[in-house]
Model the fold of this input.
Amino acid sequence: MKPFVYITRKLPEEIIQPLQDNFDVEMWYKEDEPVPREVLLNKVEKASALLTMLSEKVDSELLERGKQLKIIANMAVGYDNIDLNVAEEKGVLITNTPDVLTETTADLAFSLILMTARRTIEAASMIQDGKWTSWAPRLLAGVDVHHKTIGIYGMGKIGQAVAHRARGFHMRVLYHNRKRLIKVEQDLGATYVSFQQLLSQSDFVVCLAPLTAETKGIFGIQEFKQMKSSGIFINAARGAIVKEVDLIEALKQREIAGAGLDVFEKEPIDSDNQLLTFPNVVSLPHIGSATEETRRKMMSLCVQNIEAVLTGNKPITLVR
Ligand code: DGY
Done:
């Protein structure tokens, strides 16, 4: 019997072809909706491999059911949806999709800076709503990005790619990270600062750290109060790194000037989430790595990792 592979979203046939050639492959039939939990729990019982999205919770209940599981290939660089310790206990390998999405995600993070600072969503809505009546001296005047100070929280590969872009805008680059990165400082002219200094000195605080026990909820009201009142907060990492009620409060109290968010505590966001009511908040539906080219590379990398493990080889991008 061929090993069974279950894919939790509809992916293009030509990308999963290598799996279909060698294994018994099934796929959830919708692209825009996650597989129901019950279906997944059922499928995992006979699966040797799962190809998952970040919307799937890979916890002890699921791992317990997957008695034959050898690998879970998660189609994301982040893997906070997976209980790594239980996976390790059960001998299930976990892979992610680093590198292939670095530049694309940095593009999106930087565009959130530009959109928020230059009020481009408000501007586009004005013209679409037929409300543009005249050129005016201060019509939708935002703030400059060039020559300002950017503070990057989490100087991994995506953080570095954002720093690289910031240099092109002649920005002063500050960063805070678990450890200092001397080579990066030399290459990118970035300066390591404490978390407090990052908050108080930056015009744009950009969160690009992974979600871990250490980073969960690290941006709360005290942190927003330490930011400049003209400061803009950007999050292109994970929603749970921010206490969303505190961000809403900080915006109401004008502790900060705006926010650009690609991620939220709860995704999809509820339509009555107060964040959607602020004109100075740009909200995007978690599209950091969403280009046709990059998403295809991420899918292919998952396919290659599964192929490798099920044929007795080492996966390319092993997390643990
Ligand atoms: C990731 O890869 O972790 C992103 O959030 C989704 O592309």
Q: What stands out?
A: The mean pLDDT is 98.
